[in-house]
Design brief:
The protein contains eleven helices and nine strands. By secondary structure, the chain is an alpha/beta fold. It has a domain of about 200 residues: Vaccinia Virus protein VP39 (Rossmann fold, 3-Layer(aba) Sandwich). Strands 5-4-3-6-7-9-8 form a seven-stranded mixed sheet, with helices on both faces. Helix 5 links the parallel strand 4 and strand 5. The protein is globular. The chain starts with 15 loop residues before the first helix and ends with a helix. Keywords: Methyltransferase, Transferase.
């Protein structure tokens, strides 16, 4: 399955023309031609990189949650990404984000701890996901982080500077979001479609509904039957797909089922209650979900195809000997 993912970062879908140059050019230095034939160079810096700033904002939410009196989780590394002048609207964004983060943390660990042998975890993130470092992963866990390369490199430098380490007997690999073929790169780095895996998405920059469908196509092709895919999606995806004619629940059921997943929308309020937290009622900017793969992965299908071919060939040989 050939699948190229195209993404960008925004609370609502920006135009592809405005974002694509940031992600797919071989350099972060841009030249713009002027009428008089001269050119100016616009350099993508930390201050004007929207993907980097979005990742820092999320890290800031984790940093503040970590230092609350009764935190939902502890992220000892979020502080290395956050500058002292970072300003966030904590009241409206923190609770929802942190509740989702705690939900995803717990779901990842509970799922992985029920796997035998090699445990494969795929994180679709903003590049500053500290889960590979801060969660208590069991041995024989291999983690793949799919995220923007520049953000991931910046984060890796910061994490190395504070001595962050992956748990022993675990492996952590990065797959740049800009990679032309995500599926092929995952396989090259060791992903096995005939082994169980768990997929989680939070913070991955999405540009359009089509880009999310490409994610579903990739996960559907690589995850074994019964594997889970869960996390957060921007709510504008549903508006892109259905406008005002249908409910978000109907939209999410239809799009996931079209790629072979059974999906449940998860209520932030219900998760908050289980965590003994209170969130203000109202519309949320995100959709929390858990989906189960109902189809076989491409590797499973190929394995069975080869087995059937072998059985047929053995049968032909036996028939020839009888003659």
């Amino acid at each position: 399955m050939q699948c190229a993912l195209k993404f960008a970062c925004s609370a609502a879908p920006p135009s592809s023309a405005s974002i694509a140059p940031l992600l797919f050019s071989n350099t972060h230095n841009k030249k713009k031609k002027l009428r008089n034939g001269c050119s100016i160079r616009a350099e993508l810096s930390d201050d004007n990189d929207p993907l980097l700033q979005a990742a820092i904002n999320s890290a800031s939410l984790r940093f503040h949650e970590t230092h609350r009196q009764d935190p939902l989780f502890i992220d000892p590394y979020a502080g290395c990404f956050v500058s002292t002048h970072t300003q966030m609207d904590m009241e409206t964004k923190a609770k929802q984000y942190c509740i989702a983060t705690k939900f995803i943390d717990d779901k990842l660990l509970s799922t992985v701890n029920h796997m035998d042998g090699l445990k494969q975890v795929v994180l679709l993130s903003d590049g500053m996901d500290t889960r590979p470092y801060r969660l208590n992963w069991p041995s024989s866990t291999i983690m793949f982080d799919i995220s923007p390369l520049r953000v991931f490199q910046k984060a890796a430098e910061k994490l190395d500077g504070v001595g962050a380490k992956i748990p022993q007997r675990c492996l952590f690999l990065h797959v740049p979001l800009e990679t032309p073929n995500i599926q092929e790169t995952l396989v090259t780095k060791g992903f096995n479609g005939t082994r169980p895996s768990v997929w989680a998405i939070q913070g991955l920059p999405l540009m359009t509904l089509v880009s999310f469908e490409e994610i579903l196509l990739t996960v559907s092709g690589m995850a074994m039957k019964g594997c889970l895919f869960f996390g957060e999606l921007p709510a504008w995806l549903a508006e892109t797909g259905i406008g005002n004619k249908s409910s978000t629940k109907k939209w999410i059921n239809n799009i996931f089922m079209s790629y072979g997943f059974k999906v449940d929308m998860i209520s932030y309020d219900e998760v908050a209650k289980r965590l003994s937290k209170v969130v203000k009622p109202g519309d949320y900017e995100k959709i929390l979900f858990v989906a189960e793969q109902l189809r076989c992965s491409d590797d499973q299908m190929e394995t069975w195809r080869k087995e059937l071919q072998r059985v047929d060939e053995d049968g032909d040989e036996e028939g020839f000997e009888d003659l």
